[in-house]
């Protein structure tokens, strides 16, 4: 049993600023802003190719390949895109630079949309969502933002601080809970994460809470221990709530690019990941990693983190992303 439980906040309180960003921008505008750094390097090069290409030849495709690799789309995914475009070009089915760009957008969008299986929805609440991933990727921050985002959708939320390894994670989540006006259940540092989850799941069920968001630990140096712990948590959740966890979101830091993809593979193998949250998209020129994730992990990107504030979480849209990236 957790040593103590803290409950605060009221589900009647709306989160403070989450629903009213200082600057009201359209969704597409916010996505554009989030991928500014990637677009600056990528779209500029694409524009040059578009402007200089009358006939789509090997030189144009080489240029495109280099632009894709720089944005961290990755060798495998880039090769697939290039092969498809090369086939079209061979059949002389690409009229010029502008059409090449349209086809590129179509390719990338198709790749992002391919793994878009929806998350399982429980017949009865609560829906249980685990946030998993390596430390520092933004799990705790994303748990808080997600709680606020769901509150904005008129859903009731309970946060569970199951990263009991780090005292700071518990304190940090507490701050997010207060800000977003949701309740949180915690235990002391070093406490059993499965026990605190048991309590949180029981409370969420008893109170008919819509969403239980579980922030988990992510230390890497005891990988097998961590995976055992996640497994125990999965079993605990399933015992109390049929089908739980309904969603396991792997939080990935976009700034780590292809290295992050390697770490992600370990989690997807063991933790039953159903979707990705790609954080820190605002701070990187490697936004192309979203395409590599979808293609190589065959997992949908569900949300992107675009800053450190509560409202800086966007539901992912392949269309908006491709538009923001390629122009
Ligand atoms: P955890 O160890 O996985 O729980 O990671 P934290 O939630 O503690 O986040 C690590 C750092 O990343 C913190 O300084 C966060 O403010 C920062 N962070 C998280 N998400 C984003 C994001 O989308 N954009 C930016 N710029 N920073 C982020």
Short description:
By secondary structure, the chain is α/β, with parallel strands linked by helices.
Q: What topology does this entry show?
A:
Layout: H1 27-34, H2 36-52, H3 58-70, H4 75-90, H5 97-113, E1 127-132, H6 139-152, E2 157-162, H7 167-180, E3 183-185, H8 193-207, E4 211-216, H9 223-240, E5 247-253, H10 257-271, E6 275-279, H11 289-297, E7 301-305, E8 313-315, H12 318-326
Parallel strand pairs: 1-4, 1-5, 2-3, 2-4, 5-6, 6-7
Antiparallel strand pairs: 7-8
The chain binds guanosine-5'-diphosphate (GDP).
Descriptive account of the structure:
It is a single chain. The chain has helices at residues 27-34, 36-52, 58-70, 75-90, 97-113, 139-152, 167-180, 193-207, 223-240, 257-271, 289-297, 318-326; strands spanning 127-132, 157-162, 183-185, 211-216, 247-253, 275-279, 301-305, 313-315. The longest helix has 18 residues, at 223-240. The model is unreliable at 1-20 (pLDDT under 50). It has an eight-stranded mixed β-sheet with strand order 3-2-4-1-5-6-7-8, with helices on both faces. The chain is built from twelve helices and eight strands. It has a single domain (1-327), classed as Rossmann fold (3-Layer(aba) Sandwich), CATH 3.40.50. The protein is α/β, with parallel strands linked by helices and 327 residues long. The protein is elongated and about 65 Å long. Bound molecules: guanosine-5'-diphosphate.
């Amino acid at each position: 049993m957790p040593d103590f439980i803290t409950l605060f906040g009221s589900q009647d309180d709306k989160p403070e600023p989450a629903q009213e960003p200082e600057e009201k921008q359209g969704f597409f505008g916010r996505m554009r802003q989030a991928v500014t750094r990637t677009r600056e390097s990528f779209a500029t090069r694409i524009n040059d190719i578009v402007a200089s290409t009358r006939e789509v030849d090997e030189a144009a495709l080489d240029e495109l390949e280099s632009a894709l690799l720089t944005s961290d789309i990755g060798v495998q995914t880039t090769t697939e895109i290039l092969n498809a475009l090369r086939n079209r070009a061979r059949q002389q089915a690409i009229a010029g630079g502008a059409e090449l760009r349209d086809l590129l957008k179509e390719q990338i969008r198709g790749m992002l949309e391919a793994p878009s299986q929806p998350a399982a929805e429980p017949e009865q609440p609560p829906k249980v969502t685990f946030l998993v991933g390596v430390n520092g990727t933004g799990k705790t921050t994303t748990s808080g933002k997600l709680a606020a985002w769901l509150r904005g959708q008129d859903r009731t939320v309970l946060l569970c601080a199951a990263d009991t390894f780090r005292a700071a994670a518990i304190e940090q989540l507490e701050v997010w809970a207060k800000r977003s006006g949701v309740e949180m259940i915690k235990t002391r540092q070093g406490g059993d994460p499965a026990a605190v989850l048991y309590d949180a799941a029981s409370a969420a069920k008893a109170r008919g809470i819509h969403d239980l968001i579980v922030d988990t630990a992510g230390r890497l140096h005891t990988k097998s221990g961590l995976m055992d712990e996640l497994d125990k948590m999965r079993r605990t959740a399933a015992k109390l709530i049929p089908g739980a966890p309904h969603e396991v979101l792997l939080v990935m830091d976009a700034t780590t690019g292809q290295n992050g993809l390697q770490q992600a593979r370990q989690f997807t193998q063991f933790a039953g990941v159903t979707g990705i949250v790609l954080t820190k998209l605002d701070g990187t020129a490697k936004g192309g990693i979203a395409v590599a994730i979808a293609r190589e992990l065959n997992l949908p990107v569900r949300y992107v983190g675009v800053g450190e504030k509560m409202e800086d979480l966007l539901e992912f849209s392949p269309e908006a992303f491709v538009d923001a990236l390629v122009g």
